[in-house]
Each structure stands twice: as C-alpha cells, then as structure tokens.
C-alpha cells in the first residue's frame, strides 16, 4: 500500500505554469499561479461565459480574440467587443498559451496534449498547418523576425525551432523547464519556471546566445518597446523589465504582490497589464518610460485571472477567468475604465 501511495503521489504532481501532465515532475516545484479566492468585488466591464477554464488569449487587428478552452478542448474564436463566440476549433488537449504570427494571424497553437503546433486562420478557424514532434509538452511559442517559430519544450527542456512548417532543429537545456517565450526582433527570450532566469535564443541560428538570472521563479513574458521585455516573477511577487540585445540587462523592477502571471502590453498607450492571480486583480502600469515604470492602480477581475490581452484597435482589455468548472468566464474592460495617468 505504501508503495502504491507513493506512485499515486508522484502522478498527481503537476509541472510548471499550470501544467496537467502526468509525466515525472521536475526536481523542484515550478512557479504556479496563486489559488484565487471567490470574487466578492463589483467588477468593471462586462463578463461573459466562454468555455470551461479559459486560459491563453490573443486578439488580432480584426477584433477576433482566440481563447484556449476545455471540456471540450479547443480554441474559441470570440468577438472581442461583445464576447460572442463565433466558433470553437476542436483540438487534442487544451492550449495554455496562444500566439499570433502577424498582427491578424495566423494563430499559433502549441498543444501540450499531442506535442503539436497548429497554424489556424483567425477568421475562419481553418487549420492551415500541423507540425508534430515539437517537444514534450510544448508550452508556448513565438515567431522571430526571420520567421522562425520558437517553441518552449516544457517537460523536455530547451527549445524547438520550426521553419516552413517543419521542425528544423532543437537544443537541449538551456532552461530545464521553459515556460513563456517572447520574440524580440531576431531573438526569442524565454522564462524558466524552475528559477533559472531568462534565456535568449537566435531564431535563425537555432542556438542560445545569452542568459541571465532574473527574479525568483518566472512564468510569463511579453515584448515591449526598444527591445525590452516584461517578465512575471510569479514566486517573487514582481515584474522585471529586461533589455534584450541579446544580452539580458535589468531595466526596472515593478512590485506585483499576489502571484503575478498573465501579461499584456498596450503599445499605443505605453501600458503594461499584469494579472495578480492570488487576489483577482489587474495591475495597470505606465511603462511609457520602461526604466521608470509607474503603477497607476488595480482593478478587480474575474476569478483566477491567468491570462490577459489588449484589443489592438480600441485598447480594451480582456481577462480570462480560469477557475476550472467554476467562474469560467471572460471579462471585457473598456479602456476608459482603466486607471489614468
């Protein structure tokens, strides 16, 4: 019985960034979002139901949002203004991160359950291409300026490089458990959820070119201006602004208590949006000068706000409520409801 109990205990442990894989766990626990309390505050904006446990969201210039959902697993294509679901693209397993190869797609969908990367037309939901063998539980993807799709191989460690709808190469750790990835021109900056900082890869060359310790344990990462990225230090309660040239240099540290997780950037307004998962809050930060960020205020969100995105035309903010089987919803916040400078 003791031996059987030990085996069960190992299987129920999960890998970082909210993973639900039954693979062997890493040596140390990875960074995870906070367990959010029940929502009691009145919420700004409007809240609509979108699938189960929505997580991972991007919005194209056409105003179509793509949201990863569960039960059934897939990607819901949603009108970003109203929250109305246009259609749901069924997938093998639910994606945790989504990315856009261009301002309006195609949509890039890494599938942890099938170890595949999908290209999906954002307007029609048609799967344009499927690339298999992109690592062991591919977690996130970003496209560098040369067209390389850089995929984080979360449970295999290191990175996988995809070109012309085929795996071109891969590299070992690097990050022993890579989480979020963001393109910075020809480079891909990767957050390691095991606490080993930020790793930088040259997309065209398919090799690591820089690494630096950053924060305590990181999860998400988003590109900003002037070759800077914002990185959520989920275990450290902060967001770091880092310059990637490709060398990694700290520009600023922003206080973000409550397990910061989802990140989005509004380039027109110079705003960084950070979800605080342990408190159901959205922190709004003025990063028009990345070296001198200014916290403008916090807004209450739907429960378990694991992901956030900005509608590129209006500046409206969409937040996913990723509570499994509970308050699974999408919050649409008008840009005029955000704290002002």
From TrEMBL:
This is YncE family protein. Gene3D superfamilies: YVTN repeat-like/Quinoprotein amine dehydrogenase. SUPFAM superfamilies: Nitrous oxide reductase, N-terminal domain (SSF50974). Signal peptide: none annotated. It comes from the Bacteria.
């Amino acid at each position: 019985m003791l031996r059987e109990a030990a085996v069960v205990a190992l299987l129920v442990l999960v890998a970082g960034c909210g993973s639900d894989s039954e693979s062997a766990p890493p040596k140390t626990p990875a960074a995870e979002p906070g367990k959010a309390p029940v929502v009691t505050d009145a919420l700004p904006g409007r809240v609509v139901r979108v699938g189960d446990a929505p997580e991972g969201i991007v919005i194209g210039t056409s105003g179509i949002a793509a949201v990863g959902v569960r039960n059934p697993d897939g990607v819901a294509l949603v009108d970003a203004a109203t929250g109305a679901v246009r259609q749901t693209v069924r997938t093998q397993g639910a994606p945790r991160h989504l990315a856009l190869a261009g301002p309006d797609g195609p949509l890039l969908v890494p599938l942890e359950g099938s170890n595949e990367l999908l290209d999906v037309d954002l307007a029609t939901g048609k799967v344009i291409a499927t690339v298999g063998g992109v690592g062991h539980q591919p977690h996130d993807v970003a496209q560098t300026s040369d067209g390389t799709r850089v995929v984080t191989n979360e449970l295999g460690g290191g990175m996988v490089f995809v070109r012309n709808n085929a795996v071109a190469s891969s590299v070992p750790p690097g990050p022993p458990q890579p989480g979020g990835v963001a393109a910075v021109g020809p480079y891909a900056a990767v957050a390691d959820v095991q606490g080993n900082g930020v790793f930088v890869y040259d997309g065209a060359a398919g090799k690591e070119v820089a690494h630096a310790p950053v924060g305590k344990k990181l999860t998400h990462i988003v590109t900003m201006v002037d070759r800077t990225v914002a990185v959520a230090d989920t275990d450290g309660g902060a967001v770091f602004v880092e310059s990637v040239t490709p060398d990694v240099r700290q520009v600023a540290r922003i206080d973000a208590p409550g397990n910061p997780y989802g990140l989005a950037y509004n380039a027109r307004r110079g705003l960084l949006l950070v979800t605080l998962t342990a408190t159901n809050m959205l922190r709004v930060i003025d990063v028009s000068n990345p070296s001198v960020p200014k916290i403008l205020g916090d807004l209450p969100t739907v429960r378990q706000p694991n992901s956030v995105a900005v509608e590129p035309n209006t500046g409206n903010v969409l937040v996913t409520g990723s509570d499994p089987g509970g308050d699974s919803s999408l919050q649409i916040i008008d840009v005029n409801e955000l704290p002002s400078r």
